[in-house]
């Protein structure tokens, strides 16, 4: 028996990330110089001693499956439990894709039942934050709640972009409003739920029979529980949290890492490290005329040009005369001589020819390029943009 | 199919590493930002399709054990074969062997149980990124008893002194193994030998009370054996002293050498860590250097090798130095021609300058 089983939703397509998720699921998108987005939640589980974790995959899961493997980098290669990839399946009674977040859990009730847990933690693999789920569980037990939802205080003027939880003084939730036009509160749901398994199971079964339900935690399960006057509490999280759902927020979150201390993020915190599948690239090589400032650069890079406020993933080559500013360069990219990139996200293995100029203005969304997009751009302009 | 098993024999390797071997043996000295000496020999074996490797190590092997673990980073965590670390554990009351022959005698099981008929034996000081498949094919095709891997030294340096030199004829048959200092054909300490012959020669050496397998078993019996030489070509180095250690680390700051050693034919394997990318703060100036992950840089770094998790604070300048893992250099420090072993803490305002020929070495965990 396990006290708490984790269920990590990683099937999202991440449409708003555009080209970044053409071939991979959103949680598998590279992040922070050597990680993938899902590493943050996987590491949180590992650091919070959640040793049994189901990862629900659906959209383009190849990279994600390869990345997670047997869970070794997160110490989740366990004989009993560990990390288990749960993809949609067929059985005697038929089978179907996961039609919503709640449906994904519903279809894996038998997986959770194996461990006979008292609590189930439901999280999603596309948020950047460092959090101790044990604290959430402790409060959940203390308040004897049916569900505890982790919340973060957001600025009032932004509250209408989030799912807002209206609570009483002791943090009991009485109302959930998705993107309210007139927010009454500024506590936003982080999409992190701790449930008492018996209660959740009953609601999932009931919900599965509702023909008009979208089988979603936020839209169906939570409102239903509130309707039935179940004990729902908010858990107030303090620290950095970001949903990297759009190109803009993906870029911002990467830039935030450059000043991680200011944000209370700590990739290298000995007590709360972020783990990932490590490559075996040699240390980075910085050339004689290179200028690297306010940046993160990963192993295997060769830098001869100027890099400022940027994130360079593994095995990136920046030739002489280049200026790379406020950009994110994914693994295996070569930037040819005298190129200028500003506010650009360059996807894996793109070859940028000599003298390429690409920049997004201060107010514009950062530009995402891969080889196809770049070739198209260059064909149109005959080089330079 | 013919296969080889591996043996890394750390006995009888000459070295003068002073501070760097206070707390570890010479095979576990860190180099090039994230590696240790033994990674090269071990990776080359794995790259030669060797699936079981034994290591003879006599003392100060705590950090070696920590580094190698189960061997998983070299894909040597196998159900069959894999990694065997064999420190002295000698309980045979009838044992009369001496020198490295004690290791051979007391670990006969390793050789007897292995399915391979050939053994690749090496030390830890020959630093190259290569594989021995071609040498092995030549060994088998020519029907040799022993094949010695040699390399032609472009310029003879002090570090070559302890190694044997090889004289071979045009067909590669070894005529002589000498200490002739001016012969640039240096024996790398790596050789392939038929297993049955190895066991025979071991018995013989023990019977005659010898204490150095290579010298007495092979060199002294050269006329009775069919010994081939196979020449390694490409970048290599011998590291057996502080000076050679320093010089070869500095040589890696040339991209050509760096690529030769680390990108061909495949990566050198080492224990992976989980450090974030290097964090370049504002201001930071780094030129002509190699840096491993987890470093945090506010100061100036030039012509240096920084290992994982080194912290360089503002106003500090590090020049032509080797700074090992987790060193913390406070503000306004100047370091030139210095080697700091792991976990050294340099306090604010210090100036340490060594000479290019004799770099200043600070032992592990010192505070200055």
Label the structural class of chain B: alpha/beta
Largest sheet geometry of chain A? 7 strands, mixed
- What percentage of the residues of chain A does DSSP assign to strands (E)? 25-35%
Sequence of strands across the biggest β-sheet of chain B: 5-4-1-6-11-8-12
Structural class of chain A: alpha/beta
Number of helices of chain A: 10
Radius of gyration of chain B: 21 Å
CATH superfamily of the largest domain in chain B: Spore Coat Polysaccharide Biosynthesis Protein SpsA, Chain A
| Main interface: chain pair and counts | A-B, 37 and 39 residues
What attributes characterize this protein structure?
heterodimer; A: 385 residues; alpha/beta; seven-stranded mixed sheet; five-stranded parallel sheet; 10 helices; globular; B: 368 residues; Spore Coat Polysaccharide Biosynthesis Protein SpsA, Chain A; UDP N-Acetylglucosamine Acyltransferase, domain 1; 28 strands; 27% strand; elongated
Describe this structure in words.
- The complex is a heterodimer of chains A (385) and B (368).
- Chain A is an alpha/beta fold and 385 residues long.
- Helices cover 23% and strands 28% of the residues of chain A.
- Chain A has helices at 38-47, 62-68, 101-106, 109-115, 133-142, 197-208, 217-227, 247-257, 260-263, 371-381; strands spanning 4-9, 30-31, 35-36, 52-56, 82-86, 90-91, 94-95, 119-124, 127-129, 147-153, 163-167, 173-178, 187-196, 232-236, 241-243, 284-286, 291-293, 295-297, 302-303, 306-308, 311-312, 317-318, 323-325, 328-329, 334-335, 340-342, 344-346, 351-352, 357-359, 367-369.
- In chain A, strand 2 and strand 3 (35-36) form a beta hairpin.
- Chain A is globular, with a radius of gyration of 22 Å.
- The N and C termini of chain A lie far apart (60 Å).
- The mean pLDDT of chain A is 92.
- By secondary structure, chain B is of the alpha/beta class.
- Chain B has two domains: 4-262, Spore Coat Polysaccharide Biosynthesis Protein SpsA, Chain A (Alpha-Beta Complex), CATH 3.90.550; 279-362, Hexapeptide repeat proteins (UDP N-Acetylglucosamine Acyltransferase, domain 1, 3 Solenoid), CATH 2.160.10.10.
- Chain B contains nine helices and 28 strands.
- Chain B has helices spanning 37-47, 62-68, 101-106, 108-113, 133-141, 195-207, 213-218, 242-251, 255-262, and strands spanning 4-9, 30-31, 35-36, 52-56, 82-86, 118-122, 126-127, 146-152, 165-168, 174-178, 185-194, 227-232, 237-238, 278-280, 285-287, 289-291, 296-297, 300-302, 305-306, 311-312, 317-319, 322-323, 328-329, 334-336, 338-340, 345-346, 351-353, 360-362.
- Chain B has a seven-stranded mixed β-sheet.
- Chain B is elongated and about 65 Å long.
- The mean pLDDT of chain B is 94.
- Chains A and B meet through strand 16, strand 17, strand 18 and strand 21 of A and helix 9, strand 14, strand 15, strand 16 and strand 19 of B.
């Amino acid at each position: 028996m396990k006290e708490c089983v984790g269920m990590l939703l990683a099937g999202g397509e991440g449409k708003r990330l555009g080209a970044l998720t053409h071939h991979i699921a959103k949680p598998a998108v590279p992040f922070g110089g050597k990680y993938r987005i899902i590493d943050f939640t996987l590491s949180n589980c590992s650091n919070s001693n959640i040793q049994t974790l189901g990862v629900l995959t659906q959209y383009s899961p190849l990279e994600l499956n390869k990345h997670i493997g047997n869970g070794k980098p997160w110490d989740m290669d366990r004989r009993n439990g560990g990390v288990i990839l749960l993809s949609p399946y067929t059985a005697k009674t038929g089978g179907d894709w996961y039609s919503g977040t709640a449906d994904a859990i519903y279809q894996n009730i038998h997986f959770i039942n194996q461990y006979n847990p008292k609590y189930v933690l439901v999280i999603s693999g596309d948020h950047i934050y460092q959090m101790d789920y044990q604290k959430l569980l402790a409060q959940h037990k203390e308040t004897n709640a049916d569900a505890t939802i982790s919340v973060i205080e957001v600025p009032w003027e932004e509250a209408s972009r989030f799912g807002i939880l209206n609570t009483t003084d002791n943090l009991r939730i009485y109302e959930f409003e998705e993107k309210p036009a007139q927010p009454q509160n500024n506590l936003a749901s982080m999409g992190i739920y701790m449930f008492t398994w018996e209660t959740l199971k009953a609601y999932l079964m009931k919900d599965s029979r509702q023909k008009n339900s979208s089988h979603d935690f936020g839209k169906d399960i939570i409102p239903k529980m509130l309707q039935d006057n179940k004990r729902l509490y908010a858990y107030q999280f303090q620290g950095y949290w970001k949903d990297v759902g759009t190109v803009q927020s993906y870029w911002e979150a990467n830039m935030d890492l450059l000043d991680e201390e200011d944000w209370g993020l700590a990739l290298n915190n000995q007590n709360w490290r972020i783990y990932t599948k490590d490559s075996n690239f040699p240390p980075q090589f910085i050339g004689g005329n290179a200028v690297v400032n306010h940046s993160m650069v990963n192993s295997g890079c060769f830098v001869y040009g100027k890099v400022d406020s940027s994130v360079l993933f593994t095995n990136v080559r920046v030739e002489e005369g280049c200026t790379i500013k406020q950009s994110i360069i994914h693994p295996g990219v070569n930037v040819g001589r005298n190129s200028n990139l500003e506010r650009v996200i360059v996807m894996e293995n793109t070859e940028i020819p000599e003298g390429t100029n690409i920049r997004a203005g201060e107010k514009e969304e950062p530009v995402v390029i891969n080889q196809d997009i770049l070739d198209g751009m260059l064909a149109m302009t005959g080089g330079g943009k | 199919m013919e296969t080889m098993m591996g043996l890394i024999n750390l006995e009888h390797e000459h070295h003068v590493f002073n501070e760097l071997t206070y707390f570890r043996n010479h095979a576990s000295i860190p180099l090039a930002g994230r590696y240790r000496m033994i990674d090269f020999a071990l990776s080359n074996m794995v790259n030669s399709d060797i699936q079981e490797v034994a290591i003879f190590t006599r003392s100060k092997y705590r950090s070696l054990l920590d580094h190698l673990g189960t061997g998983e980073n070299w894909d040597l965590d196998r159900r069959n074969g894999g990694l065997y670390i064999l420190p002295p554990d000698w309980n045979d009351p009838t044992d009369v062997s001496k020198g490295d022959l004690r290791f051979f005698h007391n670990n006969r099981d390793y050789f007897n149980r292995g399915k391979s008929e050939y053994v690749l034996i090496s030390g830890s000081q020959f630093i190259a990124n290569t594989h021995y498949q071609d040498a092995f094919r030549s060994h088998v095709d020519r029907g040799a008893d022993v094949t010695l891997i040699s390399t032609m030294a472009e310029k003879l340096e002090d570090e070559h002194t302890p190694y044997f030199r090889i004289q071979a004829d045009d067909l590669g048959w070894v005529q002589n193994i000498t200490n002739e200092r001016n012969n640039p054909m240096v024996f790398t300490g790596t050789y392939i030998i038929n297993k049955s012959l190895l066991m025979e020669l071991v018995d013989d050496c023990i019977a005659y009370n010898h204490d150095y397998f290579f010298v007495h078993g092979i060199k002294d019996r050269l006329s009775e054996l069919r010994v081939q030489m196979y020449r390694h070509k490409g970048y290599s180095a011998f590291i057996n002293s502080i000076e050679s250690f320093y010089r070869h680390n500095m040589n890696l700051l040339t991209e050509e050498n760096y690529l030769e050693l680390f990108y061909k034919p495949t990566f050198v394997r080492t224990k992976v860590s989980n450090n974030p990318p290097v964090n370049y703060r504002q201001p930071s100036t780094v030129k002509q250097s190699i840096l491993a992950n987890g470093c945090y840089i506010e100061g100036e770094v030039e012509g240096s090798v920084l290992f994982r998790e080194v912290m360089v604070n503002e106003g500090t300048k590090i020049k032509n130095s080797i700074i090992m893992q987790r060193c913390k250099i406070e503000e306004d420090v100047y370091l030139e021609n210095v080697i700091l072993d792991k976990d050294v803490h340099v306090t604010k305002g210090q100036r340490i300058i060594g000479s290019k020929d004799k770099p200043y070495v600070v032992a592990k965990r010192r505070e200055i």
